[in-house]
Amino acid sequence: MVYVEMRNPEENYPFDHWWVIATSEELGQGQLLPRKVLGMDVVLFRQDDGTAAALVDRCSHRGLPLSMGALEGNRITCGYHGFQFDPTGTLVAVPTQPNCPRKGSVRAFPVVDKAPYIWIWTGDPALANADDVPVYPWLREPGWAWATERIHVAANYMLLKENVLDLTHFPFAHKSTLGAIDSYANYSPPPVLGDDRVCYRNEFLNQPLSPVYNDDLGLGDRLTDRVDEGVSVSPAVHIAKVSIRIKEPRPGEKAEYAFMFHHMTTPETPRSHHYWWAMARDYAVNDKAAAYFKSIAHVAFAEDKVILEAIQKRNDEAGPGANLQEVSVVADRAGLMARRQLQALLDAEDRRRAGGTV
Amino acid sequence: MVYVEMRNPEENYPFDHWWVIATSEELGQGQLLPRKVLGMDVVLFRQDDGTAAALVDRCSHRGLPLSMGALEGNRITCGYHGFQFDPTGTLVAVPTQPNCPRKGSVRAFPVVDKAPYIWIWTGDPALANADDVPVYPWLREPGWAWATERIHVAANYMLLKENVLDLTHFPFAHKSTLGAIDSYANYSPPPVLGDDRVCYRNEFLNQPLSPVYNDDLGLGDRLTDRVDEGVSVSPAVHIAKVSIRIKEPRPGEKAEYAFMFHHMTTPETPRSHHYWWAMARDYAVNDKAAAYFKSIAHVAFAEDKVILEAIQKRNDEAGPGANLQEVSVVADRAGLMARRQLQALLDAEDRRRAGGTV
Amino acid sequence: MVYVEMRNPEENYPFDHWWVIATSEELGQGQLLPRKVLGMDVVLFRQDDGTAAALVDRCSHRGLPLSMGALEGNRITCGYHGFQFDPTGTLVAVPTQPNCPRKGSVRAFPVVDKAPYIWIWTGDPALANADDVPVYPWLREPGWAWATERIHVAANYMLLKENVLDLTHFPFAHKSTLGAIDSYANYSPPPVLGDDRVCYRNEFLNQPLSPVYNDDLGLGDRLTDRVDEGVSVSPAVHIAKVSIRIKEPRPGEKAEYAFMFHHMTTPETPRSHHYWWAMARDYAVNDKAAAYFKSIAHVAFAEDKVILEAIQKRNDEAGPGANLQEVSVVADRAGLMARRQLQALLDAEDRRRAGGTV
Question: What region holds the Rieske domain (chains A, B, C) (predicted)?
């Protein structure tokens, strides 16, 4: 069964891929949660045993979104004529007749719930391997404080990925927030390639720690070495780590600390995406941490959202055929590599489909 | 004169047809009423003697909607340069010169006012026969209580016609209203063909009467035979009749009662339509009847509107080329027949035009 | 360097042309003013010495509107990564590296600030001659009272130009305002051609002066000869003059007065334009004049806006291929001539580009 047809040239995302579709927390028992990903309307729900399931959000009969129906046990009942579907998408009941037409089944998507995220495989189910879904200890295990939230961004997801691969925008886009803390603009960050992933690395050596990290660590003016590293793990995941080392630790004092950032991106359409940020730290693990993370995110990531949406809007107004000016500099190296890696992924997927191996 | 050019494939409605365009009541004397039907902007008004008239709602000079002008006697004066048109669409005055250009006339539509509706013929005027405009005694004559109202539905009109041809949606779409009253879902209604019209027929025999009909009839738990029949008379008209017969009438008691439903549909665009519902009954003919009909309609038909608009929205998002899944069951038989009958009407109209007989 | 590619058939405006883009007053020192003209996003600002400058409002790096950045001295700093541009559009600083890519410059537009308007040349800079930018004494010199304002009109600019070339719409479009004052509708204004410009001329001889002009002149019922003349100077400029002469002036009384109107039109897109009206008079030069001009404009020009936008909306709904009915009469002669003159301008521009002389 071929699930995906010829790629729309605007769809710059691989379908044979795991993507975050929701947080584990936001999908309650008994709920029908509609969400569009990669241009497809999906309805998410939990089975009786809590296992997450995902179907195309469109009844096979007359097309009503299934999310407008009712969930009873493991079955979705359509809100129009009562057709019932099980978690595999199989049409299991038509109220007006004893039998169900075979062609009445709807597409089901592989989903995996590994807290704090529910992941969906949007391509050929035969290629889906739940073991490939990543788990991040710092978002689950004791010893870490963390928070995550979704932001809807009306811009292609690659605009965000390139944004987080080049932090030299801090002093300008985040002038009064993140930008106030560091002289990122003086960096020409060399991408470091490891495991075919696109990275950047910025060092802030022998300096007082910037307030974002220092506020709850309380080092004052003491000198630290800080290394910021970011990795575009896949089109769906970017992880950044801030490693802090106290230059002259006091006797018995813990000398090394970590602050983790996630930028999880899931295309909604070619012109919009869902963006889950997450932050975690291994110090000051207290009740106030989540609120602190959100206070940073709500200001700084809103600044990015405004910028990316303005760029997308202008591109859209120019139209698909417009040959818009784009000049790149050294600081774009990681972003440009991410584009090339994405293109390689898309080409491989196109070849795989053309070869009939799907 | 050929009024209609090549059919836009989305325009699934016959032009050589009578359609409801307004209620007689809503078109007051002296009023210019704009309404779009079958993709055409029309301005309705009454002549001095009260006769309804309809013109294309666009001045032949520079294109201002005539409905933005003024009605003086039998003439519309355009609100831009004062060109005047009579009820035949003839340009009869240009303020700045003594003569009127011949090509300045605008299209006039045959209209017929047969209360409670004003009907418009949207095709070749030579084919319009006012005798074909139907009159419904139960919406005019003594012995009946009735009401009618327009609802705007942002969905193709055939979605509504199929809706009213398959009442097995009651228990799901109208769970707490109409659906609460009958076990429609247990029916696989056999369409009955009479006079080339698409019908359904549901029987509820030897049962207490459901509250919708019983509330003002007061039969309590007494047993009745009830037959629901619906007929798609044309693309513009669907009529349903509920026939009630008391199983064991008391001496001298009237044993038979009728409740009539109308579903009058007029395409506005390929993606929207005007929908006039009407209800009438030959019992409890009192002042409260109209309010009772509206109380039913405002809840139940709003439920249909939400469903049909959700389906249309998804279809639109998928785009015209999308090959959307649609599986049909036995209960769809009447609806599918209505589609075929419509297609035959459209094909005949296309042949007639191609043959130059228009 | 060729700045403009093949003309989009909807773009019925010459690019090699001076257009009003702002009033001198609205562009403050230190401000970044975004404005779309002829389909192009432009950012306006003043240099240190107050000279106006205009760049394409799109950073050459990643496409953020430059108007979302910051103006420091003579340079715009992009709000994303801090790229800096000087008033010639040259990229003069990239914060992360010492050198600037040559291809990073953005287009600069010739602009001229001749109060009360700032003008932009939207075509080939080599053809721009600042001496061609007009100056209107009655909007600058002592002895005149004047006012000007911008109105955004969601309609093609030629709809407004034709509007002001045919004042026979006054009695209908401005029934209770301008229309109340004169019997324009009785005129079939003969266009007078002078200097290849399209004109009209209406005479109101031996009559009391209409209130619009008389209110502050105080002639009461005394007889005057009044001549209204209008000239479409170019696609960007229409100037009208009302000349008033007292029939029997008293000894020592000034006998002649003038009231000037401007209708400055600048396309924003093919379906919208910026419209600056201006009014001036050489009598009753006092503090109340500007408020009086605005009181007329806010009512009367709003009536035109409603009409032109209704026409544009209907044309848009009909689609680009629609063959909409349009009949013309004698009163349209000036407007039709303006269309032909515009077409000649466009054809000349197209030929010039095709010939490679740009």
Answer: 19-120
| Mutual angle of helices A333-354 and A157-164, in 10-degree steps | 140
ipTM comes to: 0.93
For residue C171, give the nearest of B61, B65, B82 by CB distance.
Answer: B82
Helix (H, G, I), strand (E, B) or coil at A273: strand
Range C315-330 average pLDDT: 89
Quick check: C161 and C309 in contact, CB under 8 A?
Answer: no
- Give dist(CA B246, CA B225) in Å, integer: 7
Closest-CA residue of chain C to A325: C60
Of residues B59, B64, B26, the one with CA closest to residue B45: B26
Q: How far apart are CA C105 and CA A92, in angstroms?
A: 63
Q: Give B259's contacts (C-beta < 8 A, 6+ positions apart).
A: B213, B241, B242, B244, B279, B280, B281
For residue C97, how many other CB atoms are within 10 A of its CB? Answer: 13
> pLDDT band at C8, cuts 50/70/90?
confident
Chain C contacts in chain A segment 294-333 (CB below 8 A): 307, 310-311, 314-315, 324-331
Instruction: Quickly count: other Cβ atoms within 10 Å of residue A308's Cβ.
Output: 26
Using the Cβ of B289 and the Cβ atoms of chain C, whether some distance falls under 8 Å is answered with: no
- The distance of Cα B39 from the centroid of its chain, to the nearest Å, equals 15
**Peptide bond preceding B116 in cis form (omega within 30 of 0):** yes
Domain C137-350 has CATH 3.10.450.50: no
Rounded to 10 degrees, the C-alpha dihedral A152/A153/A159/A161 comes to: -20
Q: Cα torsion at A159, A161, A167, A172 (round to 10°)?
A: 20
Question: What are the distances in angstroms from CA B160 to CA A28, B152, B227?
Answer: 34, 11, 22
Task: Tell me the C-alpha distance between A87 and A101, whole Å.
Answer: 17
Class of A18-132 in CATH: mainly beta
The CATH code for residues B145-350 is 3.90.380.10
Mean pLDDT over residues B276-292, rounded? 97
The more confident residue out of A234 and C199 is: A234
Separation of CA A169 from chain center: 21
> What is residue B186's predicted lDDT score, i.e. its pLDDT?
56
Rounded Cα–Cα distance for residues C158 and C327 (Å): 17
The structural domains of chain B, with segments of one domain joined by +, span: 18-132, 145-350
Q: Which of B200, B198, B222, B201 is nearest to B210 (CA)?
A: B222
| B50 phi-psi bin (left φ>0, alpha ψ -120 to 50, beta other) | left
First to last CA, chain A: 7
What's the CA gap between A94 and A81, in Å, rounded?
8
What is the value of pTM for the model shown? 0.93
B118: part of which helix (H) or strand (E)? Answer: strand B117-121
Residue of C276, C307, C261, C346 whose CA lies nearest to C35: C276
Confidence check: pLDDT of A178 > 70 = no
Q: In chain A, what residues touch C78 (CB-CB under 8 Å)?
A: 172
- Contacts for B1 with CB less than 8 Å, ≥ 6 apart: none
Amino acid found at B215? D
Burial of C341 (0-12, 13-18, 19+ CB in 10 A): middle
Whether C106 has its CB under 8 Å from any CB of chain B: the answer is: no
Q: A333-337, B16-20, C285-289 — which is least confidently predicted?
A: A333-337
Q: What is the distance of C-alpha A295 from the center of its chain? A: 20
Report which DSSP code applies to B186: G
Q: Which of C69, C77, C101 sits opposite A329 (nearest CB)?
A: C101
Q: What is the pLDDT of residue C321?
A: 75
For residue C3, the one-letter residue type is Y
Task: Dump pLDDT digits (tens) for A132-162.
Answer: 999 999 999 999 999 999 999 999 999 999 9
